UniProtKB/TrEMBL annotation, chain A:
Residues 1-25 are annotated as: Disordered. PANTHER family: ABC TRANSPORTER PERMEASE PROTEIN, INNER MEMBRANE ABC TRANSPORTER PERMEASE PROTEIN YCJO. Pfam families: BPD_transp_1 (PF00528). This is Sugar ABC transporter permease. It is a multi-pass membrane protein. The keyword Cell membrane applies. It comes from Streptomyces spinosisporus. The lineage of its organism: Bacteria, Bacillati, Actinomycetota, Actinomycetes, Kitasatosporales.
UniProtKB/TrEMBL annotation, chain B:
The lineage of its organism: Bacteria, Bacillati, Actinomycetota, Actinomycetes, Kitasatosporales. This is Sugar ABC transporter substrate-binding protein. Residues 1-12 have a biased composition (Basic and acidic residues). InterPro entries: Bact_solute-bd_prot1 (IPR050490), SBP (IPR006059), TAT_signal (IPR006311). Residues 1-34 are annotated as: Disordered. It comes from the Bacteria. Gene3D superfamilies: Periplasmic binding protein-like II.
Length: 321, 474
């Protein structure tokens, strides 16, 4: 359909709708009607966010000022839970482990996902199958993933150690050694999440006009130059999104996996802050204390997000678009 | 709305104190305070005050009436495991029998074990005033629930003869002489071993170790690249502590002495920590559980020679590997040590803040704690029929034995050799548990010094006990 025909079509389809306008509707200006439509479209999301995120968050902050027994008893203790948090070495250990986890997981996940995105963008035979296969781990429940990897990494009979022994190496206690367990959790997390971020990168890569690549090719640019001067700069909004989302997910997620894979062990070696908070709340009934730590973690997350926004300019291009 | 429906009967608990909230006292709308700031402060304080009320929901189970809820992790369910089906049937039959003869009806609610044991459902239910009327409780959780005021006193519904029939099995479920939970089973720990592995290595019954050193030697002899010589629990948690306590007790050590003073930093504690540490350091004990913790698969697959496990596995072997040959023996001793093992087991409890606490308590006693034949036989059916456990009541143990429940060589050994001299699982609260757990994990898997870890844990327990308010920890 030509653009003129399209405009005609639009006119003819709009015109009959305008004919039986009621007197009430006439009173609303076009701007107001647009506001109303926007409001109605946004309302379910806003309501959901309000009920399931904002209100619980505010309540949780409120709860952090109470000593909670877990059986209906609440005692106001002001900043008591926050003072306790400052003096709790286990909490700070868990924050340190979370820091290591985030600092390793996010860049590795970013690079692997970007690499995979670039790979599956190529016109390869059966590329759809690869894309699906790489995305599959993401749709599996983290509990199932945990059980699966627990068997694969088993000390005596796990596939990984069997392969190592077959190659002439000694097997390792992947999940039983404090120096290896966190690395294993990160590796499993990368395996789970890479498919999701690969799809995001793929969408970003497909947005880059082909003409740019054709021009670069005519200028004699090699693959690295093409990536450095075209792909990387034009992926900025996508990269920003992946960086932000994976950082937030790393700080607040992974609980199910830790729960199944290591239960925070060995020797608290995989006790991420989120796991420690969960343990205090639901294992020990320390809801007030857990809320205080949770609120603190949210603060850290906001600060980290602000830093990411600052240094990436929110994923915007230099001209502000 | 902080205290739901129980204010009249119970002393008021400490609640939120509006006067203590900064911003609500002494701050008028003076010249220095804008309307926006005032509104923001008021909203914040309001949210803080509203939190407890909103998070406890709008009514308690007590106010709602209706059928009582019995939360458990056995039934009703259908499973490929015949033992699990038998356990589920025991529960459904029991509740059906109660419902047929009582006006107050009970609904049996099944929660999968991972959800019940380590999950958030039970704690969340109690935190929001929606706790079940009858539920299963382990000794490790007893104090937390007692101190939370949700355990109903069962003593008024029990005959003295029945209390005596339970004997020491009630010790960790009593406060000030009153019974707050009724054990349904006693589960002692022992060493399980693979007979084929044992025989192939040229070992006989005479080689069964009686000391720690002997056991380490045998574990070392039996281990291969794909077979663990000697397995101890490695996952951090209440269960690991439960399996470690007897090694400490055997040397005369304890967490708290008879007067309630912290006694954890002792030679016996350091010795027990070093025992597990050595077993791991020398590669005799794996750092993670074989077969992802599946005992039957571990033994059947030839991946385990010796494993510290509980009596409950006897019924699992019977169901899943009836032809598999295994043996059990008492936990070996340290030099100069005295035999002791831990006795685990779950209990029935009634919610003191539930829909009908009297009926719930009456149900618990009717089910397990009455002197009527029906009640005693029900425990016999559970301990030697649906499961393989030692019965916590003398009368049920006697009847179970007469019924042939302890005739097999393994069960006889559990009843006559392993169970006597056992000690009930302690009821330490989370902070104490966590301090001990960190010491075990730190020494066993991170190779930290036993003296430092014992001392650190003792300090942590001492700091906690100083400010602890509640029922006796021992």
């Amino acid at each position: 359909m030509s653009s003129v025909a399209a405009q005609e079509g639009r006119r003819t389809s709009v015109a009959p709708a305008q004919a039986p306008v009621s007197s009430d509707r006439r009173r609303l200006s076009r701007k107001h009607r647009e506001w109303l439509a926007a409001g109605l479209f946004l309302a379910p999301d806003v309501l959901g966010l309000l009920v399931f995120v904002a209100v619980p968050m505010v309540l949780s902050i409120g709860l952090s000022f109470f000593q909670v027994s877990g059986f209906g008893s609440y005692e106001w203790i002001g900043l008591g839970n926050y003072r306790r948090m400052m003096d709790d070495p286990l909490f700070w250990d868990s924050m340190k482990i979370t820091g290591e986890y985030v600092v390793i997981l996010v860049p590795v996940l970013f690079c692997v996902s970007l690499g995979l995105g670039l790979l599956v963008k190529q016109k390869l035979p059966g590329v759809g199958v690869y894309r699906t296969a790489l995305f599959l781990p993401y749709v599996i429940s983290l509990v199932v993933v945990g059980v699966l990897w627990k068997f694969l990494l088993d000390e005596q009979t796990g596939v990984v150690n069997r392969a190592m022994r077959a190659a002439g190496f000694d097997g390792e206690s992947w999940l039983g050694s404090p120096s290896l367990a966190l690395g294993c959790v990160i590796a499993v997390m990368v395996w789970v999440m890479m498919g999701y971020y690969m799809i995001i990168f793929l969408a970003g890569l497909q947005e880059i006009p082909k003409e740019f690549y054709e021009a670069a090719k005519l200028d004699g640019a090699g693959p690295w130059t093409t990536f450095r001067t075209i792909t990387w700069p034009l992926l900025r909004p996508t990269s920003f999104f992946v960086l932000l989302m994976s950082t937030v997910a790393a700080i607040t997620g992974g609980l199910d996996l830790i729960f199944v894979l290591t239960n925070g062990g060995p020797a608290n070696g995989t006790s991420l802050a989120i796991f420690y908070i969960y343990q205090q709340a639901f294992g020990f009934g320390e809801y007030g204390y857990a809320s205080a730590m949770g609120s603190f973690l949210v603060l850290i997350m906001v600060a980290v997000s602000a830093v990411i926004f600052k240094f990436t300019r929110g994923g915007r291009f230099d001209d502000g678009e | 709305m902080l205290q739901h429906g129980n204010d009249a009967e119970r002393p008021a608990r400490p609640t939120g104190t509006p006067a203590g909230i900064p911003g609500t006292h002494g701050h008028g709308l003076g010249s220095g305070t804008s309307r926006r700031r005032f509104l923001t402060a008021t909203a914040g304080a309001g949210a803080a005050l509203a939190s407890p009320a909103l998070l406890t929901g709008c009514g308690t189970a007590q106010a709602k009436g209706g059928n009582l809820q019995f939360w458990n992790f056995y039934g009703p369910q259908r499973s490929p495991d015949p033992a699990i089906n038998a356990q589920s049937k025991w529960f459904t039959d029991m509740v059906a029998k109660w419902n047929a003869s009582h006006r107050q009806q009970i609904d049996l609610v099944y929660l999968p074990q991972p959800t019940y044991l380590n999950g958030f459902k039970l704690p969340s239910a109690f935190a929001t005033g929606e706790g079940p009327d009858v539920f299963l409780l382990s000794p490790g959780d007893f104090l937390r629930y007692y101190n939370g005021g949700v355990l109903a006193d069962l003593t008024p519904y029990m005959e003295k003869e029945a209390v005596d029939d339970f004997g020491t099995a009630l010790d960790s479920r009593k406060v000030d002489g009153k019974v707050y939970a009724l054990p349904m089973e006693v589960e002692p720990l022992a060493m399980f071993y693979a007979q084929d592995v044992w025989e192939k290595a040229g070992l006989s019954e005479a080689d069964i170790p009686t000391t720690w050193d002997q056991m380490l030697d045998i574990g070392d002899k039996l281990r291969t690249r794909t077979r663990a010589g000697l397995v101890f629990e490695t996952n951090p948690g209440y269960y690991q502590n439960f399996t470690w306590y007897p090694w400490m007790w055997q040397g005369g050590g304890d967490v708290l002495d008879q007067q309630g003073n912290v006694a954890f930093d002792s030679k016996a504690t350091r010795q027990a920590l070093a025992f597990w540490q050595d077993a791991v350091r020398h590669g005799i004990t794996p750092r993670t559980l074989p077969a992802a913790g599946d005992v039957i698969s571990g033994f059947k697959g030839g991946n385990v020679a010796l494993w510290q496990q509980g009596i409950w596995n006897v019924s699992s072997f019977k169901a899943f590997a009836p032809k598999y040959k295994y043996g059990v023996f008492k936990l070996p001793l340290p030099p100069g040590g005295r035999y002791v093992t831990t006795l685990g087991g779950w209990s029935f409890c009634a919610n003191a803040q539930g829909r009908n606490p009297e009926a719930a308590a009456e149900f618990c006693v009717w089910a397990l704690g009455s002197m009527k034949d029906d009640s005693i036989d029900r425990m016999v059916d559970w301990c030697v029929g649906a499961k393989s456990d030692v019965a916590p009541r003398a009368s049920a143990l006697e009847r179970g034995a007469a019924k042939g429940g302890y005739d097999s060589a393994i069960m006889k050994k559990f009843k006559d050799e392993i169970f006597p001299g056992g000690r009930a699982e302690p009821r330490y609260p989370p902070v104490v548990y966590k301090a001990i757990s960190d010491a075990i994990q730190g020494t066993m898997l991170a190779g930290r010094g036993v003296a430092g870890e014992a001392e650190r844990a003792a300090r942590s327990i001492a700091a906690y006990t100083k400010s602890y308010k509640g029922a006796s920890l021992i």
